[in-house]
Amino acid sequence: MNVVRRSAAALAAATAVLGAAVPAVAASPSPSIPDGLYGTSDPKYDGVWRQSLALLAQDTVGVKPAATAVDWLAGQQCADGAFAPFRADPAKACDTKVMVDTNSTGAAVQALAALGGHRSATGKAASWLKSVQNKDGGWGYAPGGASDANSTSVVIGALTAVGEKPDQVVKDGRSPYDALLKLALPCAGNGSGAFAFQPDKKGKSAANADASAAAVVGALGKGLAGDSPKPTGAAPTCKKATDPEQAAQNGAAYLVKALAKDKHLTSALPGAEPQPDYGNTADAVLALATAGHGDQAADAMRWLETNSGAWARQAGPAAYAQLILAAHAETFDYNDFGGQDLVTLLNATGPKPAALPTSGAYPSEAPKSAADHAAAKDSGLGVWWIVGVGLVAGIGIGFLLGGRNKRRRQS
């Protein structure tokens, strides 16, 4: 998922797409952060998303989150089962003015299902997701919106998390996998097996790395935490896709090529200079590992290990969570990732965990230097504007979210 880009050019691009409302939001006073919420930036557009990623990453590596953090997420749910990005007053019933969405709901389901003890909440959320499924089998960000690869993949992960079989969740005879296959591009031409975010107004589809990373995971029936089967030992090849598994392999082949030149993906928002895209690179690594090609993603993981520190400090909990999930899937050492303990850094952005892993050296108190707090507070732009750009320009909002060998893969 694209988390934060702070350059003036990128902000100008967001302003150009979203209009004059962007500077007004950016200039607003720092919000009051609720107890239990991770991060210090305005949660209006990403509170549930970043909380879900943080909790999912902690659970993945054996950290038991604080009860206040879990309660905050569970308390954001509306009576019909849906989640909005953020509700300042959870005690107030949701009405038509509360903008619920599939991504917040799907991410919350995955986190709460992983933590356990929330079957009623996750069941209601899954029922709501099924009630807003589109006729093509997929989902858009907002209920009734055109299906896109990112949203459909997040919902697939949620359905899997609650024990549903996504291929059996159908609308007008079409499943989520049917929707993803429609967004899968052929091997010939510029698509090279990639997934599109969604067709443009003229019905044309273009390769999208963010959507491809999300859809590879979704087409394999996995969630935001991905998976890490034993590498196949061979590079993925693009073939005619007649089923979601082959479409996932085609998407993986596209991602291998996209990462080959610079070992990272590059963002190219309108009006902004191209720059490394750390979040989507982490998503691509996780996707390749999940597709059985973790060996093809090792160079990109090493690039992230060397270069992602400043980005993660600025972006906050969602960024640390993305790196942890990618490192875990890739069997890199997330406790010594470029000299940083990603888990300790993530823990420091929220309430003190209830319990830490029994194995591994974790301090009882996460360090919270003045510099760390300043960097976190300075990231007030948060995720809000990239979400808006994703919805308007179609670049997606992915993702795209113990007990194993944590030693770093050697070159």
Automatic annotation (TrEMBL):
<keyword id="KW-0812">Transmembrane</keyword>
<keyword id="KW-0472">Membrane</keyword>
<feature type="transmembrane region" description="Helical">
    <location>
        <begin position="382"/>
        <end position="402"/>
    </location>
</feature>
<feature type="signal peptide">
    <location>
        <begin position="1"/>
        <end position="26"/>
    </location>
</feature>
<keyword id="KW-0732">Signal</keyword>
<protein>
    <recommendedName>
        <fullName>Prenyltransferase and squalene oxidase repeat-containing protein</fullName>
    </recommendedName>
</protein>
<feature type="region of interest" description="Disordered">
    <location>
        <begin position="225"/>
        <end position="244"/>
    </location>
</feature>
<dbReference type="InterPro" id="IPR008930">
    <property type="entry name" value="Terpenoid_cyclase/PrenylTrfase"/>
</dbReference>
<keyword id="KW-1133">Transmembrane helix</keyword>
